[in-house]
Amino acid sequence: MSALEVQGVTVGFGGLLALDGVDLDVPRGTVTGLIGPNGAGKTTLFNVICGLQSTRAGRVRIDGRDVSKLAPHRRARRGLARTFQRLETFGSLSVHDNVMVAWELAQDPLRIRGPRGKQRTVHEVLERVGIAHIAGEYVDALPTGLARLVELARALATSPTVLLLDEPSSGLDRPETEVMGDLLVELADEGLGVLLVEHDVALVMRTCVRIHVLEFGRIIAVGAPDEIKNDATVRVAYLGNERV
Amino acid sequence: MGVAEVRQFLAFTIFGLAAGGIFFVAASGLVLTYATTGVFNFAHGAVGMIAAFVYWQLRVESGLPTLVALVIVVGVLAPLAGLVIERFLIRGLDTAPLATTLVVTVGLLAGLIGVADQVWKSEVRVVPAFFGRESGFDVFGVFVSWQRAITFLVAIGVAIGLRLLLFNTRLGVTMRATVDDRELVSLNGARPAWAGAASWALGAALAALAGILLAPEFARLEVIGLTLLVVDAYAAAVVGRLRSLPLTFLGAMILGLLINYTIGYLPRAFPNNSLPSYLGQLPQAIPAIMLFVVLLLLPQARLRGARHTVATKVKVASFRSSLIGFAVLVTAALLAASLLSDRNIVRIGSGIGLALVVISLVPLTGYAGQVSLGQLAFAGIGAWAMVEFGDTSPWLGIGVGVVGAASLGVVVALPALRLEGLYLALMTLAFALFMEVQVFPLDDFFGAASNVVPRLDIPGLSLESDRTYFVFMAVVYGLVAVAVLAMRRGSFGRRLVAMRDSPAACATLGMSTSRTKLIVFAVSAAIAGLGGAIYWGFRGSASNVEFTMVAGLAILLLAVIGGVSTASGALVGGLFFAVITIIGEEAEALDWLPAIAPAVVGISLARNPDGAVVQVAERVRERLLGRWSPGAEEAADPLEGLDASLPIGVDLTPAQVRALDRELALEEVSVVGP
What we know:
The complex is a heterodimer of chains A (244) and B (674).
Chain A: E1 2-13, E2 16-27, E3 31-35, H1 42-50, E4 57-62, E5 65-66, H2 72-77, E6 80-82, H3 95-106, H4 115-129, H5 144-156, E7 162-166, H6 174-189, E8 193-197, H7 201-207, E9 210-215, E10 218-223, H8 225-230, H9 232-239
Parallel strand pairs in A: 3-8, 3-9, 6-7, 7-8
Antiparallel strand pairs in A: 1-2, 1-4, 4-5, 9-10
Helix pairs in contact in A: 3-4, 3-5, 4-5
Chain B: H1 3-37, H2 44-61, H3 66-90, H4 98-119, E1 136-139, E2 142-145, H5 146-168, H6 170-180, H7 182-187, H8 192-214, H9 223-227, H10 229-239, H11 245-265, H12 282-297, H13 319-339, H14 342-358, H15 361-367, H16 375-389, H17 394-413, H18 421-439, E3 451-452, H19 466-489, H20 491-501, H21 503-508, H22 513-539, E4 541-542, H23 549-562, H24 569-586, H25 593-605, H26 611-625, H27 630-635, H28 654-664, H29 666-669
Antiparallel strand pairs in B: 1-2, 3-4
């Protein structure tokens, strides 16, 4: 079953169509890739999915339920979480408190839990993403790569069913990117549907089961990594003549 | 409908269109500067007010010909003033947090009013109408003065002129482009700073023109009346969502007509053709009502992303240190109560009382980044509840004051919550004006006279003497501060700060930002209501003239002076006001100080969100602990003292490494939300 389905999404800015009838689905338990050149509309699509961008047409479904009319925070409560390409961390809070805010928001307000239970769960998320050692630091003072991990931890703290990641590896070095890749595969194995926008083609090829290619607001190809690698249209549009 | 009625209708319509013309001239300047520089000028009306006085000075006092005086004020002095304001106050604010930009122009507004009050002390001044009040012409038997005709024609002229400027000149195109993307404009070889300066010069000229057109409508020139033009102007501009000039024109005309039809027709609905007292000031309140309605109708705004600017890094006090602070405060208050003279007990006590109102802005502005200009009106609700119910039981009075202020806060904030923070600030300003002209003067509220405000009584403790009440106020302030800090450390406080840092991220994590804003606004209003109930108990009496919109601006400025993100800052702000009041009273030559100092100090501190308390505390800590203090290391710029050519092998502290990392990843840091 699809964790996330996007159907016929069209977004216009004045006379320009930023997205033109985009279809896409993210099955549970997989990492699905979304690649395309700069300005193809990847971030706009993310904004549409989480409700920050209004559309001219199209539907978004989470776990089969239509959320197209819902406000962003209601979609989040249905199990959607994301990170941002342009960082949207809470700069004047500590790493721990960034994740804590997210965790608290995801809790059922009627269920009472002691403070100790809280700390442990937040701590688990920090450990998992590998930033427990900087829990006390202000996020404003972190380098970009670590701040991205804070966003990832924050998203995970809401226990999502669909996770949208907007270039999570930028700012990370090679070994860190490897670890990130492993984490994404692990999350998918636990049943999450992950939609990954990424410029690091190697990371996409390694983690994704299926890849969507977006160009000028249209999906021009869908397929397994090998198919995409050898797709002539994609090579021209996106990968250029570079060997992958 | 007889001929007489048609004529009357025509007359009200002509009056309305002329008034609308003035509103449009004022509003167009507001829209122009806001759209080009992203800074909303609360002092827009005040600039027009000053211009009207200067025009009077030249035209009436010095006897210059009308045209010459007009050219000097509108063509030379006003644009110059606009340039100076832009250069020294506004430039660089486009990426600053909303609260900062608001404080700067609100400070300017308060400062200009203070200056005008000092320079043009009360005396009857009349600005003559163009060609005299009596000259004009008839339209279908309705007399139209030249003044009104000219006003309307000027409005049309301004509309056409701006259209030509924005679409047919290079400067205009740069201005419009700057609205969309400042950086892109500079990459394309134009100069956004120049467009910003031009927009402020032109905006000031339009404000001046509007002020001068409006001036003859007053029987005598008055500072506040002219300054309030800004409220009419933004009620009109909000129709065009502060961007569209044609819609602003429409809004201005609707507002002008609404006001004049209300004046003309509303009395007929009542016996003797006269308005009952509770509606007597309704025409003045129409801009506020129109704003409320228009905000309700505006579509939801897109959620803003993070603004990567200097965020406050105030360490949140632990429960232990807030208790220590509480103990210190109460001890100091006890000492002061035994040392100060009767007179100074009253003066310093007023500072503490005021601080109780100021601290209401700490959760709202300090934590959540939202701005309210209506806190004094909420305090007025508290004071009124004490007057009304305090005699039955002072506790009932306080309860009604707190609950009443909070409920009213919900109603006021509701239409603005879906929109950007600026609209909430505008709404609160309109609310303050509404309360001032329409509610507080009613007989059911303060009426025209002074009212006795009873004091709280605690069983076994008499608060009758000013000295005891002085200490009591300090205790209440301490308790509120401890509570506010506890809130900040808790889940709700974290949410507020998160929402200030990135509303978009909060929404995608499941937070309803509207609800969160609503709750914090209600909490803030409740604190202000409590402060009002207790502070006016100290003063002993309350009257409607104490709760004006303009007086309320000082609350925000004092909050910023002390530091709006610290619980102790409000006290510093309140005491600052007490001290300058003492100086103003003691030294006659400095009697202008209380009117001007909050504005000047507020403006100069606006760019530093931490305010005076934190700055002083940092200095002290650096002195005492030197380089071993981790706090001092964080506060200083970690890159300071490092040159671009680092010698290889130099040892960097972790903070320096992080800061260098950020400097190098430039594209990630300099991002400004849409």
